[in-house]
Specification:
292 residues, PYR_CT, TIM Barrel, alpha/beta, hydroxymethylglutaryl-CoA lyase activity, eight-stranded parallel β-barrel, metal-binding, Pyruvate carboxyltransferase, lyase
């Protein structure tokens, strides 16, 4: 399954929020194109992430946009979890970083504190009846961090599964993963987790992204995050953050590999062009070229 994250990971690098009406247009376009899972934003404080202002209203407006469509939001704390519940979302994305500098920049917590909060939120989500997706950022290395041991990630995911997590994502936040590294990681995780519950959140250049996508798919990974045109990247990394896996690239690569997603590629391409028109002058120069 491809989950679109344009409205969250894509738009979070903009200098200001895209108008709510435009975000709703994009969401409906994604649903019409065939996406079954869309992350609509993050439940962050407006002073911390003004690009996500109006995420709750967007969730309410988009409710029932398409039968079978799952909407979710990224949640950082108890208040965010309560906001997600209040606006009717049935799924939340929760995460922690394995890099000390990145964790402090992103969450204001050290790695141990971030993981403890992740466990707490996972348990609270289960109690509230929410589907919990958990992610480990910098899972293949990052600022001040070599590639974490596979056994550490496997133990962390097993712990989160016991707390109620249902989806498990490896985030290559810094764009450092390589196909062989991915295959070894997936083989390790597959010993205790169903591969259809395992996902990849990839960053990098188009050719590396294609190689990592196909390596993950061939190893049995069931879920991949994408954005229109590859827009986005983590604003808490030093320097130029690598972009996301473009939806257009992922659809074409899987189609060529004999596993076409049930998503209309032409509709996605048209929506990507519509997004470019919407953004107009809003994209910072470093991100002005959406991947093709």
């Amino acid at each position: 399954m491809l989950e679109d994250q344009t409205l969250r990971d894509g738009l979070q690098i903009l200098p200001r929020a895209l108008p709510l009406a435009r975000r709703l247009e994009l969401l409906r376009g994604l649903a019409d194109a065939g996406f079954q899972s869309v992350q609509i934003g993050s439940m962050a404080r407006p002073d911390k992430m003004p690009q996500m202002i109006g995420a709750e209203r967007l969730a309410r407006l988009a409710a029932g946009a398409r039968p079978g469509l799952t909407l979710s939001a990224l949640v950082f704390n108890r208040q965010g979890l309560e906001r997600a519940l209040a606006c009717g979302l049935g799924k939340v994305a929760l995460s922690a970083s394995l890099s000390e500098p990145h964790s402090r920049a992103n969450l204001g917590l050290d790695v141990a504190g971030g993981l403890a909060r992740l466990g707490e939120l996972t348990a609270l989500a289960r109690q509230a009846g929410l589907r919990a997706r958990v992610g480990l950022q910098c899972a293949f290395g990052g600022p001040g961090l070599a590639a974490p041991p596979r056994e550490l990630i496997a133990r962390t995911f097993a712990w989160l599964a016991d707390l109620g997590a249902q989806e498990f994502f490896l985030a290559d936040t810094a764009g450092l993963a390589r196909p062989n590294q991915l295959r070894r990681m997936i083989a390790e995780l597959g010993r205790n987790l169903p591969l259809e519950a395992l996902g990849l959140h990839l960053h990098g250049r188009p050719e590396a992204l294609r190689a990592n996508l196909l390596a993950g798919w061939r190893a049995g990974v069931g879920r991949f995050d994408v954005t229109l045109g590859g827009l986005g990247g983590c604003p808490f990394l030093p320097g130029r953050a690598p972009g996301n896996l473009p939806a257009e690239l992922a659809i074409a690569a899987l189609q060529a590999a004999g596993a076409p997603p049930a998503i209309d590629p032409r509709a996605v391409e048209n929506l990507g062009r519509r997004l470019r028109a919407m953004l107009d002058e809003n994209i910072p120069p470093v991100y002005s070229a959406m991947a093709s």
